[in-house]
Design brief:
Blueprint lengths: L4 E7 L2 E7 L5 H7 L18 E4 L2 E4 L12 E3 L1 H7 L1 H12 L9 H13 L6 H7 L11 H13 L6
Parallel strand pairs: 1-5
Antiparallel strand pairs: 1-2, 3-4, 3-5
Helix pairs in contact: 2-3, 3-4, 3-6
The protein binds FE2/S2 (inorganic) cluster (2 copies).
One FE2/S2 (inorganic) cluster (FES) binds next to loops.
């Protein structure tokens, strides 16, 4: 208990101060503070289910040292869903395309998709697969997930001509 240190982050638009061990991952700090939409899978950087945006960049929170994020901005799938139009479009597309299969990997997939779309992602299935290659679906497969991201890219006028 005694080696917990204060850590201030901006999470989903709100400045928060947590107590965290110097070695805690960002994933641990988020989940210990009720951000349960950030899922915990492998905790080794392999599955991508813990993906969040850190200053706009998709990162695996399980291999990100929480104290290195002090003063920085973190967005989770849920926070983005309430505040960001692109994320809402992606979430709707996941529902419409049946991409929420087991659902466990979904928050991380949506954050990875948001990162892709925010960085000029186009309606190209190969590129979309590359963009979500750090996020594993262990239950069913990627086709419907790719369909959803493709749909959003088309809706944004990013077809490849
Ligand atoms: S829990 Fe972070 S990559 Fe698997
Ligand atoms: S839909 Fe999440 S693991 Fe397959």
């Amino acid at each position: 208990m005694s080696n917990l240190l204060p850590l201030t982050l901006k999470v989903n638009g709100e400045e928060k101060t947590f107590l965290a061990s110097p070695h805690a991952s960002l994933l641990r700090v988020l989940r210990d503070n009720y951000y349960w939409d950030v899922k915990c899978g492998c905790e080794e950087g392999d599955c991508g289910t813990c993906t969040v945006l850190l200053d706009g960049k998709a990162v695996k929170s399980c291999i990100t040292l929480a104290h290195n994020c002090a003063g920085h901005e973190v967005w989770t799938d849920k926070g983005l869903g309430y505040n960001d139009e692109i994320t809402r479009m992606i979430q709707d597309a996941f529902v419409e395309c049946g991409s929420i299969q087991c659902g466990f990997c979904t928050p991380g997939m949506i954050v990875a998709a948001k990162h892709y779309i925010d960085h000029g992602g186009i309606a190209d299935r190969k590129e979309i697969r590359k963009a979500i290659s750090g996020n594993l679906c262990r239950c069913t497969g990627y086709n419907k997930i790719v369909d959803a991201i493709y749909k959003v890219a088309v809706e944004l006028g990013r077809e490849v001509r």
